[in-house]
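Support case: adenosine-5'-diphosphate complex. Customer-provided input:
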Amino acid sequence: MAKVLVVTSGKGGVGKTTSTAALGAALASAGKNVVLIDFDVGLRNLDLVMGAERRVVYDLINVVQGDAKLAQALIRDKRVPTLSLLPASQTRDKDALTDEGVSSVITELKEKFDWVICDSPAGIERGATLAMRHADVAIVVTNPEVSSVRDSDRIIGLLDSKTERAEKGERVEKHLLLTRFDAARAGRGEMLNVGDVLEILSIPLLGIIPESSEVLRASNLGSPITLNNPASAAARAYFEAAKRLNGEALDVTIPIDRKGLFGKLFGRRAA
Amino acid sequence: MKILNFFKQRTSTAPVARERLQLLLAHERAVSGKSDLIAILQEEIMAVIAKHFPVEQEGITVKMERGEVVSTLEVEVEIPTPMCPSFPLPANSAPSDPSEPVSIEPETKMARTGS
Ligand SMILES: Nc1ncnc2c1ncn2[C@@H]1O[C@H](COP(=O)(O)OP(=O)(O)O)[C@@H](O)[C@H]1O
Ligand SMILES: [Mg+2]
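Agent response - structure generated as follows:
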């Protein structure tokens, strides 16, 4: 049974697109058929993070409006054959996305893929509610910081009211993904710690992604962190999160990059 | 000991963040849960006013604002000026009470739009 997953947050810049790419690649590497949909119309970025920006011909709006077939718009990943991308439009008006159009695209994708992952735009407006509309599962991406936690709370409210499942009286399965986490700063009390955020938002924890320069390197290169540097702490955290999404019961850990001073000095030169 | 406390105060801001969030979200959840109430109020107030004036659905806004001691329910109704009867204003009540929730005086309306 195909699952529709929305990666959402309310706040921008918290790591939705990064997480969509990383988790999508992790699930696909584990043999699942995965499609990533960029819902950020006008500000598309998922193609760039995936390294597919030069291969975009048609986009989600073309498909919704019937100007292109779904098969023409899907971009198959060159590294992982079971991973595809449906890019957003960079130029078109986001009002071109109709409810029925999105609904029929998702229905069609559910026939072909195991996971349909929707990368939500920031905000709580139409773009964000369209992205979550058909979700069975939601990942609420949150940074350990007051404004991000507040916005996540708003989004959780929307997941419980504005989704198709909510309207039918069913539940959307919600998971918290804590990203850009700095264990040292949380330990010193400079940043909300994991327990604080969990207690406030009270949804189950999918994973903790450490703040890491490896994430930036990966996006510079146009490769999800789970493909670009699978051994890095952030990638390991994403792999674990992907396993939990597939129903494996694993304890949540905070992976760390084991780099001493030596490693840091020479890691720099090797980069 | 003092120095330790000093450092603790300087760096441990997370508990403050946590407390502020808990307070704020408790309130925001209550309000968003009741946003239906605001919609119902809006509809009912609208029905009452519509008995006397031709008002549009968009011409009425109902807002709940939370203050520390009292909260206010703000109701604003826009009525096309030609439809407004000219009330004979009692001499001493001319400057309208700012806490008056419903304002239907054409003068007030004009002053607010700044024209
Ligand atoms: N774990 C992380 N460590 C360091 N930087 C990160 C991490 N996650 C995301 N970022 C960076 O944060 C920025 C915003 O991430 P992005 O995924 O585009 O957020 P969103 O899609 O929520 O707006 C990007 O520059 C990204 O590289
Ligand atoms: Mg994004």
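Chain A touches chain B through 16 residues (CB under 8 Å).

Case will auto-close in a few days if no follow-up is received.
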